[in-house]
Each structure stands twice: as C-alpha cells, then as structure tokens.
UniProtKB/TrEMBL annotation:
It is found in: Nucleus, Nucleoplasm. Belongs to the SCC4/mau-2 family. This is MAU2 chromatid cohesion factor homolog. GO terms for biological process: cell division; chromosome segregation; mitotic sister chromatid cohesion. Residues 579-598 are annotated as: Disordered. Keywords: Cell cycle, Cell division, Chromosome partition, Mitosis, Nucleus. Its main location: nucleus. One of its GO terms (cellular component) is nucleoplasm. The keyword Cell cycle applies. It comes from Seriola dumerili.
C-alpha cells in the first residue's frame, strides 16, 4: 500500500500475507491464494485496495491457472478503476501492461492496442512506465509484422529517452529499431542508425554490465548483418569483438545499485541469454564458413546451457534459440554424412514447434527446407521437390526464398527432365542480372548451379566460366564448401576433357578442403575422381589408395543411409501441410536408392 497516505487495515495485511504465503509455497497453493484475495472484497475496501486486489487476482489467475475468463474480468476491472485514481501509477500501468499481454495471448490483439495507446498517452510523466509501454506496443506491432509502426514507436521512445536524459535507454530504443530495419532490409537506413548507436554506446559512461550489454546488442546486429550478406570473412573482426565482449560480461558481477534515472531501469537480455546468443551467431558463422566441427562444438555448448536455463526460465526466446541452433546443426549433419542424427533433430524441431504455434508459424518454411535437404541427401527427389515447394509458399523472407530456389534448381538438374521448370527458376536467380538479394554467398551459389547445369549439358567452357566466378567469390569470403564443390566439379570437367594435370590440380585441393570441413559427399566425389585420374595416368598404387578411400566413404554413407531411412521419422518426408505429425509409424527399411551417391 505504498501509494496510499493512510496505514493499511490489519485485516488487509493479514489476507495479503496469507495470499503471498500460499503463492510462494512449494508447490504453490494457488486456490488458497485466490480465496484469500477474493476475501478482501467482503470488507468493501476503498478504491485503491479494490483496484490493487483485482490486479493481483488477475495476475495470479493469468499466470497460474487456465481460468482466462475470470483473469480477464479482474484485469479489466483493475485497469478501469485505477484510471479514476490520481497518483496511482504503478497499479494503473501494470494493469494496462498485463491486460494487454493477456489479450495478445488470447489472440485479441485489437483489444490490446487501445489499452496500450491510452496507457502511453497518460504515462508521459512516469518515465519508466512510458518507456516500457512503448517497447510493449512496438513489440506487438513487430509480432504482427507491422514493422513500420513498430519502428515509429521505437523512434518516439528514443527521442523521449533523450529528453529524459537517459542515453542508455535511447541506445536500447535505437538498437531495437536497427534490428527491425535489418529485418525489413532497409539497409540505407540501417547504416547511419548503427553508426549513431556505435557512437552513443562508446561515449556512454555508466554501469559496466549495462554498457557491455549494449555493446553485445550492437555487435550482434553487425554480425548478423554481415552473415545475412554472406560475408563470412569480413565479419571476423566484429565476431571476435563480440566474443571478447561476452567474456568481459561473464567476469563482471551484477551491480545491485539501480540507476537513479527511472527511464534507465531496463536491460536488453539476461547475461545467460546473451551467452547463448553469442554461441548461436558463432555457430551461424562456422556453418556458413564450412568449419563444421567448430559449429558442432559451439552447438553442444549452447544446447547444454539452454537445457540448464529452461529448467528455471520459461522465456519463449530460449525455445527460439534452440530451434535456430538445431536448424544450423541439422545442415551441418547432412554435409558431414550424419543423416540419421539430422533426421532425429528435425523431429526435435517439430516437437518444439508443436508446443508453440508462434514458433511453428515463424519456422515452418525452414522446417520444410531442412526436410527438402534431407530428401536430397537420401535421393528422394520427388519428396525434395514437394518439401521445397511447400517451403516457398510459406516464406516472404528473400534470402530464405533464394536459398530454397537454388536447392530446388539442383533437384531439377539431377532429375534431368524438368527443363521448363528449371529455366523458369534460373531466370529468377540469375547471378549476372537483377539477383534478388545482396547475399554474397547466395550469389556465389547461383553461379555454381549454372556451372552444374552447363556441365550436365556438356557445355564445358561455359561451365568453367561460371565455376571460376564461384571460386573467385568463395575465396574472397572464405566460403569453404562452395570452394570445395567448385574445385571438384572443375576437376571433373578437366578429366572429361582429357586434361589430367589440370584435373589433378583441382581435385587434390578439393579433397584436402573437403576433409577439413568435413564434407562427405565431396570426399566421395573427389576420391572417385582421384581413382580414375591415377588409373588413367598409370599410377597404380595411388589409384588403389584412392579406390580404398572411395570404398570407405561409400560404406559410411550406405550405413548412414540405411539407418536414416529405417527410422520412423523418415515418414516426415511425406508431410507438406498443416502442423507436423506427432507420431511416426516404424519403417520396414530403406525405400530409396543410393545409386546416385555411389
């Protein structure tokens, strides 16, 4: 009753004490807590006590029970009554904030917006709540994909924080706006905004943990911007700074001294969440660069940390981190020849998405894309086409769309009889003309796809031109997998043309790079070429050694192929619509051929 000038009644203190005791019991006794709070109304309490009790009841029912109707009634009463009372800001704005959160959870977004707008309008003299409510309404618009409205609100928040003298909160608003502009691909607006943010962060002198957390936010945006652009080499200095920054944060003790400016009572993410996020962007970088063992190491660390955090924290962002980590490690597994493990991890992503409709909405396209990549790896080309087609219908994200189209084109090339569909796709990802995205990596991959098609059509000079373009681009940004694939395909072309020396100059470094990644398919391809090359050149011993290597890779891939196709989760390749299936029927055995691999 801090807001009241009168001492609270003993009966009120007693009931409140009992309610809190039951709420914090182990396990919580929510029914008894609710009974105690409801008993307050029997005493015909004054409006302040009535409003606060409605808020407490609404919060408890919303957080701990499924009685949404009663929770809504109490929260609406708390918001209505508190608006009639002057100098009652904490209850008033907490009621608005929780009621809006409740409406969003019930998919009543149109009811949440006016509550937040009214609360923002009347909270300008209460800096903490004004900033918090602006963040909340901006987040609501962002979840609805109305990024323009969200950015406008964050801009309003940044200016308000500047007027209130909080450069820290101003930076939080601006960095949040930068994040949304990156999502919208408004790069001309992002660059000056990030430059301004960098200056604010470096000049701000305050709580060391708050300063370092701002630097982490700023560097995460920079790193993801580079990775989105496929610039794996250029990002390294920023990524190194980010990793050093998170090490600094982990050595700092949480400062118990709260900021004196109420507009600065915010933090971006808890320290532990930031650690997982840095692991995540490191995994993204390692996967794009083709350091797959490093990606595996950091994924293991991040998932272990996530498991610990999820025991104590139900924050939805942790499940999002987990899904993104799994998406990246699944792609790594498919490259390293661990298809059975990849399939089980795809099933794990399905289970996480079943628990959260929002997670499924945001990751359905990625899930079908992963299944498409798995189908390619087990030579189920019809299923791969169906999965990629489903994914294309579910995404508006330009980079993901381009990635899917590139892989679908590779399926059509392998099938060899889909010329019309193939040429239609290739027109849309022409690396020489109006390429749909600015990603260096995806443009290099588009040149590779053109080279692959020219190779299959026997147009070897044209193939060499495309592949040399891929090599030039992949070498510039350390894209190891594309480099290895281009080298082995060039080696194959020179072998077909009878230029054995030049073929050897391509295949040997391809094999070395593929072993370093490690990329099982390129190793298989390279060893087959080395066997034929050495045989043609009369190097019997080297030919025998290459044949033995090829046999070993073939056996490993065959065993993994059989293991994957025998799993009940293999049935996921037929799922293209609606929510992922919860149960899988066991397989009788592999139903696909390994002929194309071996």
């Amino acid at each position: 009753m801090a807001a009241s000038t009168e001492a609270p009644e003993p009966w009120y203190l007693a009931l409140l004490g009992f309610a809190e005791h039951f709420r914090t019991s182990s396990p919580p006794k929510i029914r008894l807590c609710v009974h105690c709070l409801q008993a307050v109304f029997q005493f015909k309490p004054p409006p302040r006590v009535e409003a606060r009790t409605h808020l407490q009841l609404g919060s408890v029912l919303y957080r701990h029970t499924k009685n949404s109707e009663l929770a809504q009634t109490h929260l609406e009463k708390a918001w209505f009554i508190s608006q009639q009372i002057s100098q009652f800001e904490d209850v008033k704005f907490e009621a608005a904030s929780i009621l809006s959160e409740f409406y969003c959870q019930q998919n009543l977004v149109d009811s949440a917006k006016p509550v937040l707008r009214k609360a923002i309008q009347i909270s300008q003299q209460t800096p903490y709540w004004h900033c918090r409510l602006l963040f909340q309404l901006a987040q609501l618009h962002a979840l609805e994909k109305d990024l323009v409205s969200a950015c406008d609100l964050l801009g309003v928040g940044a200016e308000y924080a500047r007027v209130m003298g909080s450069e820290y909160t101003r930076a939080l608003f601006l960095l949040s706006k930068g994040m949304l502009l990156l999502m919208e691909r408004k790069l001309s607006e992002v660059h000056p905004l990030l430059t301004l943010c960098g200056t604010i962060v470096e000049n701000w002198q305050g709580n060391p943990i708050q300063k370092e957390s701002l630097r982490v936010f700023f560097l995460v945006l920079q790193v993801t911007h580079y990775l989105d652009a496929g610039q794996v080499k250029s990002v390294k200095p920023c990524l190194k700074q980010l990793q050093q920054c998170i090490q600094t944060i982990s050595t700092l003790h949480d400062d118990e001294i709260l900021p004196t400016n109420p507009a600065a009572l915010f933090h971006w993410l808890p320290k532990e969440h930031m650690c997982v996020l840095v692991y995540l962007v490191t995994v993204m970088h390692s996967m794009q660069a083709g350091y797959l063992e490093k990606a595996q190491k950091y994924t293991d660390k991040a998932l272990m940390q996530l498991e610990k955090l999820k025991m104590l924290d139900s924050s939805p962002i942790l499940s999002t981190f987990q899904v993104i980590l799994l998406e990246h490690i699944i792609m790594c597994r498919l490259v390293t020849g661990h298809k059975a493990t990849a399939l089980q991890e795809i099933s794990q992503v399905c289970q996480l998405c079943q628990l959260s409709p929002r997670l499924f909405t945001n990751h359905a396209a990625q899930l079908h894309t992963l299944l498409g990549l798995y189908c390619i790896s087990v030579n189920c080309m019809d299923n791969a086409e169906a999965q990629f087609t489903a994914a294309l219908q579910m995404t508006t994200h330009q980079e993901l769309w381009t990635f899917i189209v590139t892989n679908l084109a590779s399926v059509y090339i392998r099938e060899g009889n889909r010329h019309q569909e193939l040429y239609s796709l290739l027109e849309r990802i022409n690396p020489d003309h109006n390429f749909p995205v600015s990603s260096h990596c995806l443009r290099a991959a588009a040149f590779y796809i053109r080279g692959l098609l020219s190779f299959f059509q026997g147009r070897y000079n044209e193939a060499k031109r495309f592949l040399r373009e891929t090599l030039k681009m992949s070498n510039a940004e350390d894209l190891n997998r594309l480099t290895a694939c281009s080298l082995v395909l060039l080696g194959h072309i020179f072998f077909v043309l009878g230029n054995h020396r030049e073929s050897n100059n391509m295949v040997v470094p391809a094999m070395q790079l593929a072993s370093k990644i490690p990329d099982m398919s390129v190793q298989l391809w390279s060893s087959a070429l080395l066997k034929d090359l050495n045989k043609a050149c009369g190097n019997t011993m080297d030919a025998h050694e290459a044949a033995q290597m090829h046999q070993n890779f073939s056996q490993q891939l065959l065993q993994d192929h059989i293991a994957a196709c025998s799993l009940p989760e293999h049935n996921l390749i037929s799922w293209t619509d609606g929510l992922p299936p919860g149960q899988f029927q066991p397989q009788n055995g592999p139903t696909t051929s390994l002929a194309s691999l071996l």
